[in-house]
Fold this protein.
Amino acid sequence: MPVLNMAQAINQALDQALAEDPRVMVLGEDVGRTGGVFRVTDGLQQRYGEERVVDTPVSESGIVGAALGLALGGMRPVAEMQFMGFSYPAFDQVISHVARIRHRSRHRFTASLVIRIPYGGGIGAAEHHSESAEAIYVHTPGLKVVVPGSPDDAKGLLRAAIEDPDPVVFLEPIRLYRSTKAEVAEERFTVPIGEARAAREGTDLTLVAWGAMLRETGEAADLLLDEGIDAEVLDLRTLVPLDVPALISSVQKTGRAVVVHEAPRTAGLAGEIVALIQERALYSLRAPVARVTGWDTVFPLKRSEHLYLPTAERIAAAARRVMET
Amino acid sequence: MTEELQQILTPEGELAGEPPLGMEETRGLYRAMVAARLFDRKATALQKQGRLATYAPFEGQEAAQVGSAAALRTDDWMVATYRDAAAMWLHGYPWKLLLLWRSGDERGNCPPEEVNVLPPSITVGAHMLHAVGLAWSARLQGGDRVAVTYFGDGATSEGDFHEAMNFAGVYRLPVVFMCQNNQYAISLRRDRQTAAATIAGKADGYGFPGVLVDGNDLFAVFRATAEAVERARSGGGPTLVEALTYRLGPHTTSDDPGRYRPADEESEWKPRDPIERVRCYLANRDGWTEEWQRAIEAEEIAEIEAAVAEAEALPPLRPQEIFEAMFAEMTPQLREQRGELLDASGHVPVES
């Protein structure tokens, strides 16, 4: 099987969807001629033309609002927000319209569209280029939220998102675009939305993570193994709908958990995950569940971002505390 | 810049230009305006009786809505607002559903398959982009359908007005932007909404034509919209139509216009009534009699009353149904929450 990085895997998923389904189109800022600021859509406009791979004005609400109209008219638009920090001008379209149209019209009108959003820090980017606001999308009823952590999942989940009858917010960890490589099957395949996966099996504690944090979490699991602690790493992959059975059965098996995300701590998704564990697996727990997260600060600029992002050492330290109880 | 106001039928019912409609078509649209006003007054009365939630009356804007909607083909898309019941109805949206939605029931937002009208928009301005996308999809699919979107003077201050106009201009999409400038956005006067001399003139900034018409003149509105639709259909791109009109009633049934506008302003606009001028025009040409008026009113009232009865006879949604339209397939979380609601309200949980 060919080895691809995540950017190439996403490109391949888009390429195949454009080739196989005439309703699919890609639109966003700089996605055409230059192939996107991360080159994720490289070559697609050359192959499918300006009508199907559309360079739009700098207009996030316009992109999402028009994409909704396109979906209502029978197209399958894949809209790109250039960075998560630039997706906020489109919030009204996402929250008030994309997420609501099926419910408010009792299934008469539906929004089968994908909003791709590169997210997260760790590449020393400029201000507003490192956000992790997944909790806001997760908190909005009517959206599915997907975060791939590997190239093969990125390809299969994106194709599933494009074929999904409901709107999917597809979060792409910027830091993993090129730093992670894996074998990815060449033909079309899907990875089901709503299923977590054990990125690594273990028996002593469960490390819950998604997206870019899988790398630090995996490194933490390596550190812990050297100390004789056998950690399971659960990659949630889909944040809505969350795979609660996978989460609970892993915690029931290990009796201990640490939840990791790079978003700020307060009202972050870890709070929801801890609540689910408390409701459903309290009597399996041998220690309080710990959170390792970004801080409740603005995401710092390049010279300080290492202070913000959870590191393998922070995750391992939290795991040791949980193991000591 | 200042656009010249287009007028064909004066407030006195005299012709100031060539009428774009024959006598029978004019009688048909006159009747539609009469029906719309009867509906508007009925809905206002129902709200006062507590049978509808908040209602947004459009009295005074009948020509702007009926004249423009009449210029569409049935397969054209309409994306309108909470004050556009007359336009939506003329484009096929049943009175019954408009009432049902106003009574607080989502099923009112579910028009029959063949009706190409989105549910009315409550947020201001965002829906214009949906019309842009619908027009875009129509072009990509190779047809000649167009999309028309309705909005008011207030919406032109929203960012999405700019983003929608800009997208439409850049891609030369088959969209008609139909602005009913009714002089007020709730309490704010038009001259505090924008310093521009006209709203129509804003089209200049997007590279397509803007047209200013007397919005209380059925003929002028029809002609301007028909020209805009034809331009869109033949690949000529979008048009902004500003229909100058006046909201004779309150913003909604919860609002008191006496707090923000002088009463004599309303009396100034009353003689410019959009229905009366067509009545005069028809009467002067043996196209209107009191007997006919009574007959059409009786028939339209009967239809509206039947719609009220049908809407009110519909039992409310079953409790579990609020969970059933979130996704094509219900998520495990929603199934669980549905069970929780039904337990709490003493119903038997349904099987998941």
Summary: Residues 6 and 151 of chain A are 4 Å apart (CA to CA).
